[in-house]
Amino acid sequence: MKSPKKSTGFTLIEALMAAMLIGLAIAALAASSGAFTTYNAAGVDLSTAEFLIEEIREKTASMAFNDLSNCNYPAAVDANGDLIDGFSAYAQNVTVDYVNQDDLTHPVTGPKDFRRVTVKILKNNREITSSSWIRANY
User: Fold this and answer.
1) What phi and psi values does residue 61 have, to the nearest 5 degrees?
2) 29: domain range?
3) Residue 28's CB: how many other CB atoms inside 10 A?
4) Which of 3, 72, 92, 97 has the highest Cβ tally under 10 A?
5) What pLDDT is recorded for position 7?
6) Do residues 114 and 104 make contact, with C-beta atoms less than 8 angstroms apart?
7) How many structural domains does the chain have?
């Protein structure tokens, strides 16, 4: 009596399981690639916004204390007030509030020796980030 020959190779179920695992791995890689791209774009926007805040900080640092005022730039400007090429989707909104030396967080009315400058950076009318600093009349 001859013993039956064992077949070599994969069964249909084993082949289907291997194909399913490979498909899941490819789907996971595609999903993670999309997430990485989204987070990278958000990081680029935040980095650009911080750069534009620093441009306004430099602009206000060279201004006289009494010349500080609210200002909206519909396109990004540099420290000299010149438009920056390639940044037309960004806007810089500058708000200047009087603050009391005892409480620098809440605006007050009337001339004071301290002003809080707040800059909001928008991209396509959506706020990316904001930053504030205090200027003293010295």
Assistant:
1) -65, -30
2) 12-136
3) 10
4) 92
5) 65
6) yes
7) 1
